[in-house]
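Async update (no meeting this week)

Hi team, since we skipped the sync, here's where things stand on the single-chain job. The sequence we agreed to prioritize is pasted below, unchanged from the tracker. I ran it this morning and attached the output directly underneath so nobody has to dig for it. Comments welcome in thread, and please keep replies under the output.
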Amino acid sequence: MTTSPVAAAPSRRRFLHDATTAVTIACVSPATLMGCQKSALDSGNTDAMDEALQRMAGLGLDGNHGPMAAEALIKLGRAEHLPRWVDAYKRRFTVSYPANSSAVSRANWQAALGDARREADWVDFFSAEVKEAAWSQVLGQWASRLAPGLSAAAGHGLIRTAHAARSLQNKETDLRRRELAQGLGYWAARYKPLPDLPGKTPGTLKPADALARVPRLPDEKRNRGSVDTGLRSVSQLPEFSQVADLLSLPNEAPQFLSELTETFATVYLRNVHSRNAIALVHMVTGLVALRHLLPYLSPSVTRSAERYGWQLNAAIYAVYGNSSTNPLPEAKEIKGEDLIDRAVASGDEHAIKFTEACLGEYSLNSKPIYLQAARDAVDRLK
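Output:
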């Protein structure tokens, strides 16, 4: 059994200092990024999302990143690439839409929670819910219930739900409500809490310091399958059950999420290799998804979601982190438009989503590490 890699981990000050100085200059300002994203949404491209959802209707839920990447492309101002990208994605995505089993209702939903065979039943349930009540109300209620299982499918349910909510903020349509129902339905069907023994006292550590206390699974015990399968192996680490309460959770959620995403963008660069890139990408995109859900969460649910978001990232690090860290890449000039062009050219759904997430975080917290991480992922996943 491994112990916490305290000695091998850099100090928090050095950790974040190295992250901040990894790139000399990024030729794109936060204000420019935010303005470009807004103009993309205001330019009449909003209907492109509905067209993309219509064209992807009938695709299976498991592993389906199509709607999320489509929404990210629009956010990046590249809606004109959607038809070609969707057609290419549909050709290589072969999972069929699941069959119904038995209806999920307000009376029996707890028995269906976490039952992957009930994906279609859950989607039908949420489709009915968002027809009877405001989608934002449904989202707020169920994000609270589903937060302990936020790690569902390596955060895929959470991330899909957040992209759907962001598109609904811009325009409410039946197709977008259906997409929200699919995100929530997948989250509920794949609901799977990680090992957790809540502490009696709140955590006191900053993210980089808490990370040094996370136990890591020995290489010989690491699963080579999907990220979701890999995360199940944290049950082999008894110490992991206390990880969720290592972190101090401040009251200012937006700023705290920036600290977390900066930390885990750095974790990505220090730990990434050919086999773990997609797993590490989820550390940032999952936290960014939480940011998009903040308007619908109460303060208490926000703190709970932050706790489980940290726990998911700690689990990814425990299973996919390296025993020795990579040096940060050589400093170089990075242009935001170049990142976007490279992401689009790659055609990779994870590269597109990660690039959009990193640029969004950079617009709020202008640390070059986000651009460096995005550049690495785009080049690695193309």
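Quick observations from my side:
Residues 60 and 96 are 4 Å apart (CA to CA).
Confidence is low (pLDDT under 50) at residues 1-28, 30-44.
Reply here if anything looks off.
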